[in-house]
Amino acid sequence: MERIIQGTAPSEVVARLRNADGYFITNTARDLSQSDFKNRILLHTDLLAAPSREKAGYFSLEITGGASIHVDILRKQVDPFLKLELLREKMPKTMFQTLCRGINLFGYRPYPQNVIRFTVREFAKYVDVWRTFDCMNHVPNMQAVFEEVAKAGKINEPCICFSTGPEHTDEFYVKKVGAIVDVTGREIILCIKNHGGLGSPQRIGQLVNAIKQSYPDLPIHYHGHNTDGNDIGRIAAAVMNGATIIDASDSSMTGFYGPPPSLTVIQTLKELGYTALGIDENAVIETSEIISDQRQYYAAFESQIKGFQPTVQIHKLPGGAMGSSLEQASKGGFLDKMPDILHKELPRVHKELGNYWSVTPGSQILWTTAVANVQGGERYGNPSGDLRNLLLGKYGPFPFYQPEDWIYEKVLGPDWKKVLEEEGGMDEIEDIDLEQERSSLEEKIGYPPTDQQLILYLQHPNDAVNFFKFEEKFGKVYVLPPSIFFPQGQFAEGSTLSFTDHLGKEHVIEIGPTMVNDNGESSVYLNVDHHQRIYSFAPEAKPGVAAAAIVLSKEEIQTLAKNGDIRAPFAGNICEISVKEGQEVAVGDQIAMMEAMKMQTPVVTAIAGIVTTLSVKVGDALKPGAKIAQVDIDE
Amino acid sequence: MKKKILVANRGEIAIRIMRAIQELDYEAVAVYETPDKDSRHIRLASEAILLGDGPRCDYLNIDKIIKAAKHTGACAIHPGYGFLAENPDFAKACEDAGIIFIGPTSKVISDLGNKVIARKIMADAGIPMVPGTPNLSAGDTGVQEALSFAAQYGYPIMLKATCGGGGRGIRLIESDEQMHKEIPVARSEAKAAFNDDSVYLEKVVLNPKHVEVQIIADKEGTTLHLGTRDCSIQRRNQKLIEIAPSMIENKELLDEICQTAVKAAKASNYTNAGTVEFLIDKDFNYYFMEINTRVQVEHTVTEMITGIDIVRTQIKLALGKKLSFSQEDVQLRGHAIELRINAEDPQADFMPEGGKTVSLYRSPGGFGVRLDGFAYQGYTIPQVYDSLLVKLTVYGFSWHETVSRVRRCLQNFDIAGPKTTIPFYLNLLQDPDFIKGDFNTSFLETHPQLFEYKETPNEAEKLSKLIAEIHHRGKNIYAF
Known about the structure:
The structure holds 2 protein chains of 2 kinds. Chain A is 39% helix and 17% strand. By secondary structure, chain A is α/β, with parallel strands linked by helices. Chain A has 4 domains: 12-299, Aldolase class I (TIM Barrel, Alpha-Beta Barrel), CATH 3.20.20.70; 312-423, Conserved carboxylase domain (Cyclin A, domain 1, Orthogonal Bundle); 490-537, CATH 3.10.600.10; 554-632, CATH 2.40.50.100. Chain A has an 8-stranded parallel beta barrel, surrounded by 6 helices. Chain A has a 4-stranded antiparallel sheet with strand order 9-10-11-12, with no helix packed on it. In chain A, strands 13-20-18-15 form a 4-stranded antiparallel sheet. In chain A, helix 7 (143-151) links the parallel strand 4 (129-132) and strand 5. In chain A, helix 18 packs across helix 19 (416-423). Chain A is globular and about 95 Å long. By secondary structure, chain B is of the alpha+beta class. Chain B has 3 domains: 4-102, 3-Layer(aba) Sandwich (Rossmann fold), CATH 3.40.50.20; 131-203, ATP-grasp fold, A domain (Dna Ligase, domain 1, 2-Layer Sandwich), CATH 3.30.1490.20; 209-451, ATP-grasp fold, B domain (D-amino Acid Aminotransferase, Chain A, domain 1, 2-Layer Sandwich). In chain B, the strands form 5 sheets. In chain B, strands 13-12-9-10-11-14-19-18 form an 8-stranded antiparallel sheet, with helices on both faces. A 5-stranded parallel sheet of chain B has the order 3-2-1-4-5. Chain B has a 3-stranded antiparallel sheet with strand order 7-6-8. In chain B, helix 4 packs antiparallel against helix 5 (106-113) and helix 7 (139-153) packs across helix 8. Classes of the chains: A alpha/beta, B alpha+beta. Chains A and B meet through helix 22, strand 10, strand 11, strand 12 and strand 17 of A and helix 8, strand 16 and helix 16 of B.
C-alpha cells in the first residue's frame, strides 16, 4: 500500500486508514527533541534530515507544537512559522503534525477563544494533522481547536490521555471516545496519548481492542514514550489489536524518555506479519546516518541521569517533562532527593489530587507540588497559584474524584467552602481586542507586525518581542549548525566556521585573537569573508567588583533630563558654563556649552528650577551620559 | 632634485592636492599635528613635518607652516580648504617669505574675505546682492544696530561671521530675543575659529537654491568659468550633496549667472581658482553671496563634467603659467553628484562619531566613480577634526543614470565602526523630489521622512556579531 501524500483530503486520509492492511509511522521528531534534548534540536539538523525523512514515507512528521514553539523563539531563536515553511520546501509530500494543548494551545494557561481560533487558523496553513489533548480529558476544552481545524480542511486527531490505576478502565475511555466523536464526528483519527509510556503491552492491546469493538471505523494512532524501555512492546500490542498509526523516530538520536527507534519497530512488526506502509527502510536508515554526528553538539541538553526509568510506572511523569524535571533537580541541588520525590511523594500527591492525567499543564502542578512538599517541610504548606486554580476547577472538573477536604483547606484557607462556592468552576475567558494587541506590539518593535508575529506575541508577549529584536540584530540564525550555536567553550583561534546564510550566500569566518585592554574591554577579531572585523565587549561584572560605568542611551539621557538630571548628550568638551550653583533657571535656559568636532551646542535644561549641583568645569572632556548638572524644582 | 610643494592641510583634501603635485612630478610635503599621526595623507607624502600637538592650532599656525616649508625647501604651499586657506595673513606671510601661495593674492583674499569690503566691490560692479549690514559694532551698540536692521527688513535674518566661510559661523535669527542671545555665541565661535569676532547681518532669502560658479583666472587677466554647481542640500548650513551642473532648466539664466560670476571675479582682480556663490529665490532672481578664495570641497563635480583638473590648474597658474584653454574649450557634459560621507549619525542631528575606529572599509568602484578619501580599515577617527571620511563623486551621462549609479555605489560601500551618512543618503536618493532635481536649501527640513530609515546590516554582519559574542563568552547566552 502506498504512502499518504500531503494535500490528500481528510476524509480520503481517514478512508485510507480504515482500509489499511498494515500500519503507518509518524516520525515524532518534535517529541524526541522535547523529551531527550530539552527541545533544542535545531532547524539546521531537521533541514539536514529533511530529504531522507521525506523519502522515508512517514504518515507524518510531528515537528511543531508542545513546548517547541516557545523554545523555538526563546532558546533556538527561530521563527516557528519560517521553520515550517522551510521544511515544507524540502518535504512537499510529508504531512506535518502538531501537538496542541487545546484551550492552552502551546502554553500552560488557557487562552481566549479568539486567540485560539486565530492561532489555529494560521498554523493550519502549514500543519496537516492536529493532535489535540486536554490534561483533564475535558472535551469542551478542545472544541475551539477541533472546529478551526475542520474549517481549515485539516485532519483532527483528538486524544484520550491515558494513565493507569483503578479508575482508568476501558469503560471510562470508551465513554470518553464517545464524548469526543459526539463533538467531532467520525472523520477523525483517534489518538491514545500515552505520554508517560505507562501500562504493559497487554494493557494497551486491551484498550485498543475495547475502542475498536465500540468504534470499528475509528482509525487509532498510538502515541507512546520509551521511558521504561518497553514502548515497542506496547506499539506491537496496539498494532496487533487494530491501531493503524504509531509513533517512533530516528534511531541515531533516540534517548530514554522520547519515542523508540523506528527501525526497531519496523523489524519487530515485520516478523509479526505487519507491514510498515509507505516506508522506505533504506531512507529510514539513511536519515539516522546523516544526523548521527550532530548528536555530540547536543550533549549539554541530554538527561543528567542516563538509563531507562521503569519506575515511570510509579511516578508517571510524562516523557516530555523528564528532562526538565531532572534539570531542575540538578540546578536546584536536590538530585539526591529525587528517589523520594519520584517514588514516594509524587505518586502520593497524584493520588491525593484525583489521579488525573500527568500531562501538561497538570503534570507541572503535580511535580511542583511534590517538590514543594518535600523541600518545604509542611505538605501543601506553600501551594502554588496553579494548584489553587486546579482545586477551584479552573482546568476542568476532576474526572474521578475530588481531593479530600483537608487539602482544600490547606490550599484555599479555612473558609475554603465559601471560596470554592464563589470562585470555583471554569472561567469564561473574554476575547481580547486583537487590533489593540497589534498596535501595542507595533509600538514595541517599531514596525507593523505580521499576523504570524502577532500570534507569537499573543502566546508569549515578552519572549516574542525579544525574539523579534534578536533577529533584527543577529539575523536568521537557523543557518548556524549546532557546533556553532551550542559551542562547548570558545572556538579555537585560527579555526574556520562556515555556513550558508538565509539568502543562500556562503560565508567563512575565521576566528582571530581576542585582545583585552586596560579597562577590561575585549576586542574579538574575526575575519569575515576574508575581511577583518572587530567586535568589542564590555568587561563582565565580577561579583564584589563594581561594574564598569554604563553608557546611557539617548532615550535614557532624555528621560533623566526631564527630572533635571542633565547629562552630556554626546562626547565632547565643556567650553562654557553658563550658570552658577543656586541660580534659578527657566525651561530652555542654557546650562553649559559643549563642543565636539568644532560645533558648539548649548546644553539646556528641560525643567525650571534651581541649579543645585554643577559637576563639570570648563575644559572637561565628557563621555555621553556624563553628569553636567542637577536642576531641582523650586518648591 | 625634484621641486617640492607643501600641503598645509590634512585629510582627504591633502591627499587630493598631493595627487596633483605628484602628477606634475613634484614632491609633496605633508604637515601634521599629533592627533593626525595615523592619517593617510602623511603616508602618501614624500616627507612630513610634525607641527605640534594641536589640535587645530598648529594647522592654523602660520609661523610653523612657513618654517616647515623653508626647512624642507618647498617652493610653494597649497592651503587646501579651511584652516589657513582664506587667511590673508598666511598668503601675505608666504609672499614675504618668497614662497608661492597657491591661490589668489593676499590683497584679493583680504578684500573678499571681508564680507563688507566684498559687498562694496560687488555693488560698484553692479552685481545683484541681498540687503545686509556692515560689521556690527562691539557690545550692546552692535546689538542695537542689529535690532534696527531687523525692524527695517524683518526676520528671518542671517547672522554671519565676517571671516567665516564654508558654513561656519552662520546663524539663522528669527526674533529679537534670539538676536540678543546669539550675537555673543557667534562672536565667541568666530573668535575661536577665525581669531576675529566680527559679525554682520544679511536679510535671509527664504528657501533659496544655492548655486555657485567655479571660476579660474590667470595673472594676465583671462578669467573663465567652469559652469555651475548646486549645493542646496545642506544641514546646519554645511553642504552635504553637491551636483554639477545646476538643475535649473533655463540655460540662458545659468549662462547669465556664469557671466556675472566672471564679472565679479574680474571686479576683484581675481587670480587662480575660486567660487562665486549665489542664492536663487523662488522667482529665479539671483543674488551674489560671496566669493570663496580657495578650492572647494565640491570641486570634484566640476572636474567630472568638464574634464579639467582644477587643482593641477591651480598649481600651474600659481607657478606662473597662463591658462592653456579658452572659454570655448570648456564643455559641460553629463551630470555629476558628490556626497560627503561623514562619520556622523544623521538620526542624532548629525552628531559626529569621532573617536570610533573604522573596523571595516570597503569602497565601490566601476565606471564614473571617483573617491576622495583618507579613511582605511583600522583608522581611528580623531575627535578633534571634522567628520568627513570620504567624498563619493559619481559621473553619469544623464541625471537619471547618475542618480542610479550613486545608489549602487552607496549599496556597495561597506564601512563599519562609526555610523555614517550612507544610509541617510540611500534614503534620500529614493525621494521623488530629489529624483526630479527639485530641491532648495530647505530640503532637509521639509523632508523629515529622510531621517526615517533603518540601518540594515547584511546577514553576514549580523551573524558574525552573534558568533563574536558566542566566542567571547564561550557559550551562547541566547540558547540556554
